[in-house]
Here is the input.
Amino acid sequence: MRSQTVQQLAQQALASQTFTRGTGVPRRPFGRAAESVSLLCLGGWHAVARPALEKTDESESIRLMHAAIDLGVDFFDNAWEYHDGYAEEAMGRALAIDGKRKQVFLMTKNCERDYAGSLRNLEQSLRRLQTDYLDLWQFHELSYDNDPEWLFERGAVRAAVEAQQAGKVRYIGFTGHKDPRIHLKALGMPHAWDACQMPINVMDSQYRSFLNQVVPVCHEKHVAAIGMKSFGGGWPRGRVLENMNVGAADLLGFALSQPVTSQVVGLTTMEQLQFAVEVARSIPMPEEAQNALMQQVRVEAGDGRYESFKSTNEHDGPHHRRQHEFALARP
Here is the structure.
């Protein structure tokens, strides 16, 4: 269940909310910074056109990104490795139209752990995204216990700080989906992080919980807590809804009701975008409903069956597997 501390932090987050004018989408303060971002963050991996999602026309992806901005979703997510760089390229083309870049808080992720590789990632991301600065640059996928040390020992953090001083990066953060202990180790390193991204969903609340273990530390350190994997990883599949009789609105509503700055949501269609916006407008989910939902999924949540990104290496990215000299996942 949610800890008493998380409940109190959620109340504080709701009290600090403002709303995007004309759309009703909630906004929350970005950590210690004197600005806010939309509670919904558009996931860059899903937003771009690609055959795997039966989307072959990039213009549809651009239309989705522009519609998100119009609806008040101004926090955009991406990563250097998404679709071998195509995700950043497509987003860059979308944001180059009619000055859209100035209307979003743009985040992408660095996949390297060393100094030279990090600077190379940054320049490639800036070029692809057609921008001269990033609002937030995050170290992607801290999945292994020694990843936090590598960021410092191999010079990645030094590269990020230099980029920040040069005006190419405004804020610095890190992400990961594997284990709360790794996040806590990174948060304890000698750097004043601006953001920390992690799984936040009803399953997480009861299994190796980032919500209960990491989010309170983020708030204590004034670090923006960014959620992801609202549905336990991917848009809810039939088995989730059938086996547990839980609707997508319940799952997303729960995630958005937690004390996060923003929740990255993978959206591939206009219908999904409109759905997510409507859920965001309707939060918070009452405390009694949250408790009932956690009780309803207690068995499934307790053994991690819907969060295999925590308990297996099936979801570890190929780039990071190579860094650690691990075999690539089976196709």
